[in-house]
């Protein structure tokens, strides 16, 4: 899927920190009639109702009122109140305070598994992965049968680059809770990260079995099938994802890319148009529409699509580059150069922009400018031997055989397979 791969902002495309909702586990065994301490039991009961409705600020307010009535922390439900307050604060993004209340619960009950599990979860949100692992492992010692805890341990290990440990933890979580979607998804992520695409597919298929209506599982399966070269299966998976989330532009774009990999640009065009209509990632959708027209040599239509993309995202560097490609094909080279330079200014690491600049300058006989552009591309990608082949040919065209020979020797010393492609050019010059 190299030519038609969707841009991903983050490497952890599949990673999920959202495990099972621990609310019900935290609330199990609560008595609604614990006596004493004035209105404290009533406040706790009200907080439970709010938590179950995911009304975090309201739950926090009731819990704080309850705890204010028990400054010495003597009530039989005070530990669970502290844990629940920690959980609410985590949901509200107050991570440091969340950790503080979990630790207070541990001071009262050193074997409070829910508090250690809460610290693990909140530490993951804070990207404190070592602390998350330590807390998760302590929780697992107290309660080895918690799938949620194993899930958190797996997330910590994955972020600490302990892939085998992460896989083992996710498998343990799944064994304990077979319908734990996050564990299936992250197991797939872990497998994919070590090149085990078959294992990743099995994991994402497991997620689908756990919840056939979870669009993200179908999406991830489609991505893995595509990376395996199974484009028909990839298209089918993305179609299912689209059925489940018809307003998700990303899914239409992924479907379109998979359809392009199958060679079905007509269907892909319709998918990208659907993404535009969804008003989600419409800038990327228009860019992909433009690429279909560009590849079909419909350059004016390509320009129209790329300009639509820029209306939505004026700083989309790759679109400026694609406009440059279209203009170059229309022999509007000065405009092309300006557009490509804009792309390079927005994305100084965009190697393809400098390569295209070099090609245009070389075609115009502007050898010094061409070498300058290729040189910048080589600085960004020093291991790209193709750039040195281009520089060699420009030097030959400029009559600079010594400079061309230096590039040829560079390629030969690297043992590049591209040496053979220019050997005859050097011999015949």
Major beta-sheet overview = none
Q: Overall pLDDT, averaged? A: 91
Helix content: over 70%
Strand content: under 5%
What is the general shape?
elongated
CATH C-level class of the domain at 12-159 is: Mainly Alpha
CATH topology descriptor of the domain at 12-159: Serine Threonine Protein Phosphatase 5, Tetratricopeptide repeat
> How many angstroms does the end-to-end distance come to?
38 Å
Instruction: Write out the CATH superfamily name of the domain at 12-159.
Output: Tetratricopeptide repeat domain
Which structural class is indicated by helix and strand composition? mainly alpha
Number of helices: 24
What's the quaternary structure here? Answer: single chain
| Rg from Cα | 29 Å
Number of strands: 0
Low-confidence stretches: 1-14, 20-24, 28-35
CATH architectural label of the domain at 12-159:
Alpha Horseshoe
Write down the secondary-structure element order. HHHHHHHHHHHHHHHHHHHHHHHH
